[in-house]
Amino acid sequence: MTMKAKRRAKRHRKPKTAAPAPMATLTLRSAPDPELQKRDLTVRTVPVRPSTLDEANRSVEATLATESRVTVLDLQSWRLFEEILVMRGAEVPEQMPLLDSHHRYSIKDQLGSIREMRVEGQQFVGRLRFGSDDDGQRAWLKVSEGHVRDVSIGYRVLEGPIIEPGKSQEIEGVRYTASPDRALRIALRWQPGEGSLTPIGADGATGIRTDTPAPASQRATSSTEDSVMTFEQWLAERSMKLADLSEAQRAALQKDFEAARAAADADAQRGATTPPATPPATPPATPPATPPATPPAEGERGLTAADVQATAREVLAAVQAERAQVITQIRAAGEGFPAEVVEAAVREDTTLDAAQTRFLKHVRDGRTGTGPAIHVAPTANRQMIEAGLLLRGGYPGDGLVTRYDEETANRADRLRDVSLVDVCRMSAGLDGIDFGPGRTDAIRAAFSGGTLPKVLGAVVNASLMRGYTLVDGSWRKFCTIGTLTDFKKATRIRVTDKDDLETVNAAGEIPMGHVEEEYEEIQAATKGKMFTCTRQNIIDDNVNVLTKTPERLGRRANNHITNLVYAHFMANPDMSDSIALFHASHANLNTTTALSSANMGVALAALRTQTDLDGEAIDIGRVMLIAPVALDGTARGILNSNLIVVASTATVEKGDKNVWEGAAELVSDPRLSNANYTNYSATTWYLCGHPDDGDTIEVAFLNGKQTPTVEEVALAGNVLGRGWRVYLDVGVQAIDWRRLQKNTA
């Protein structure tokens, strides 16, 4: 071995305790780690932004996550995934703890907190704030001096469809392809939970982000006698330039560069006379004569030089494909702009966001000689613009006073006839954006600012909630309302007391009783819809897409719950005892019992004599009569009339007192006789105990949220507009058959 190789081997000699493996050689133990699984959080390493250091407040910003593809370990399934965090799906908390190396079992492990979290394009950013105690001060000193460079974020994926290896799938308008040997998870909804300072990051490519061209991890490792190929040189051999790569692409290729260096160093340790500066151009024809000193443990796979070459080729192909897709999006977004501006964006911009910024700058700065730029002075604030659009869409004035204030509502009245293009002009003016005289100029400027999206979002949300609350769902009169914490099946237990109270003996001993449990299972599901407001809608001044469309969706969301309830109990599902909800064995099915005064008495008697497991009466008090609209008149005559009208015979008979007046509360609904529902009938009617007195049919909402969720969604890069999705998480289940009764004619 030459002196040069010996020095290299000594410099890279491995310590006796194994160091953490780089991401490029990520391995997985064959058995799950129980301690890790307790955390229930996925983690990934992110860089600190040193240029944002604030000495006075002991704070610094970090890019907490990006939309780059990263290999992560799912702690619950103990499975390696490639994962893409969709930034628009982040549920941004106001604050989360900043920990020391993911230790979270004591407040002593908390170094501070992470605040001011937000989504910036394809990045999730937050500010690390360090505490004033000794631990916080010590950690701050190490970060500010540049010793600690990595922050590991922990998060929980709430909605993440998985694409199996080698498969492709279109999700929310974007087509994703999983790598041949690893599944790809698309985190559509995810929730950050913690951030931790870590001495060694899991990803060798991450580190402090600076404005210098070459971070330390990319500079040559050199001495007076030898040097190692730099990252830029490594890229040049593969026909790539560092400046042409996005941050995500740099990170992916940096992993392979580090792995290549590690493989070269391993060759030197095995006795190679001259360690190669770069991996060979083609995989070696024969394997190394000397095997590795320490074979991989069971369940692990080491990374060979051939693996590195194969991965590099795959990454290069992926980079080229991604670049082609970005160029296509840039050309689509640049339609209508001068060709030289579009071509400059294709050559120099690595992301669609950067290209759109270039196009907007052209709109702002490129108007010399073609007419004066327009800057609309803000004559109204954002709330007034929102209120004016709502008034124009039919929102009641008194509702605006409640939603905003009287002054805003009064001033909004002068804005009710303002067009959507004028709304764009006012919004751009509030943002301080200059724009050209055309309608398209105003629309582009407004969509690039922050006011218009907030205005449109507020109008959409208010209109949808108005539609939702205007519908008085009949299900609320006879159903109980519950809460579910997730989408798994939840058990609803009915506890029934056994045995009556017994006499207490002279010694004061009270006999021990016991209970028996019955149960039903309930599960939530998600229903949703998307709609958009495009540039054409704005030019056409179609305000209905912002007011009437979401209002109709709100009505449908409420009606959907009612549909679920009636479809459920009309279908007569099996209960946990494997007997249908309405069945003779449950003593709650009366046949040949048309709705009449006499049959009302029979049905009420059968309902109120229901007993629990011990044979004791369950004491049903208030009762609901659920009937189709065809029986509405008959039902009202039975429940609301003072007298019973008796059919006349030869002798005129007088009416008698109606003993069933007020015996039940009427719930009339057209779904009972609608042919779209199983077992529909215009003559079948039901009795139900009041939900305040005991379990009937439960309507359960995820996390107790009874109203629809409205979220803005990103549209394709070539679509100028805004989109929203509306969804509701709800489940329905009959809980106790004893308080429900079916009567057929």
The rounded Rg comes to: 34 Å
Category from helices, strands and their pairing: alpha+beta
> How many alpha or pi helices?
18
The overall average pLDDT, rounded, is: 76
Strand order of the largest sheet: 1-2-7-6-5-13-8
The coarse silhouette is: globular
Short description:
This protein is an alpha+beta fold and 745 residues long.
Features:
745 residues; alpha+beta; seven-stranded mixed beta barrel; five-stranded mixed β-sheet; 18 helices; 27 strands; globular; disordered N terminus
If you had to describe this structure to a student in words, what would you say it looks like?
It is a single chain. The protein has 745 residues and is of the alpha+beta class. Among the domains are: 23-198, no CATH class; 334-365; 382-449, no CATH class; 584-694 and 737-743. Helices cover 30% and strands 23% of the residues. Strands 1-2-7-6-5-13-8 form a 7-stranded mixed beta barrel. It is globular. Residues 1-33, 35-39, 202-227, 271-303 and 367-378 have low confidence and may be disordered.
In terms of topology, how is this protein built?
Layout: H1 3-11, H2 34-37, E1 42-54, E2 59-66, E3 70-74, E4 79-85, E5 96-100, E6 110-120, E7 123-130, H3 134-144, E8 150-159, E9 162-163, E10 168-171, E11 174-177, E12 184-187, E13 189-198, H4 231-236, H5 247-269, H6 305-333, H7 339-348, H8 352-365, H9 382-392, H10 397-403, H11 406-412, H12 420-430, H13 439-448, H14 451-470, E14 479-484, E15 490-498, E16 514-522, E17 525-534, H15 535-539, H16 548-570, E18 589-590, H17 597-608, E19 623-627, H18 632-640, E20 643-644, E21 656-657, E22 665-668, E23 685-689, E24 697-702, E25 709-713, E26 721-734, E27 740-743
Parallel strand pairs: 4-12, 5-13, 14-24, 18-27, 19-22
Antiparallel strand pairs: 1-2, 1-8, 2-7, 3-4, 5-6, 6-7, 8-13, 9-12, 10-11, 15-16, 17-26, 19-23, 20-21, 23-27, 24-26, 25-26
